[in-house]
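Re: [ENG-882] Designed sequences occasionally contain unexpected residues at chain ends

Forwarding the minimal case from QA. Structure tokens:
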């Protein structure tokens, strides 16, 4: 699966995923530091209470919550720059 210029789209996906995870981690760490707490500012959206499908024999629970912070956005931007220069 090659993208523009012969680059692998899976590499972009993995870099974006790593940027989101590392950015979220940095945002959590920066939450307690007074000069860096702006990195943890963001919005959470999704299902607050999971949806439960009870079929008697099988119980399936659906739930998804996404938290977007300034640090995760910066992580995505850095991942895109790294991908462009690889």
């Amino acid at each position: 699966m090659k993208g523009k210029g012969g680059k692998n789209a899976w590499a972009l996906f993995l870099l974006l995923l790593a940027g989101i995870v590392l950015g979220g981690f940095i945002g959590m760490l920066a939450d307690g530091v007074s000069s860096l707490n702006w990195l943890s500012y963001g919005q959470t959206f999704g299902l607050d209470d999971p949806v439960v499908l009870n079929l008697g024999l099988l119980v399936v629970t659906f739930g998804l919550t996404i938290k977007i912070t300034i640090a995760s956005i910066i992580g995505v931007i850095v991942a895109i720059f790294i991908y462009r220069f690889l």
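QA comment: On inspection the terminal residues look reasonable. The CA atoms of residues 17 and 84 lie 16 Å apart. Proposing we downgrade this to a documentation issue.
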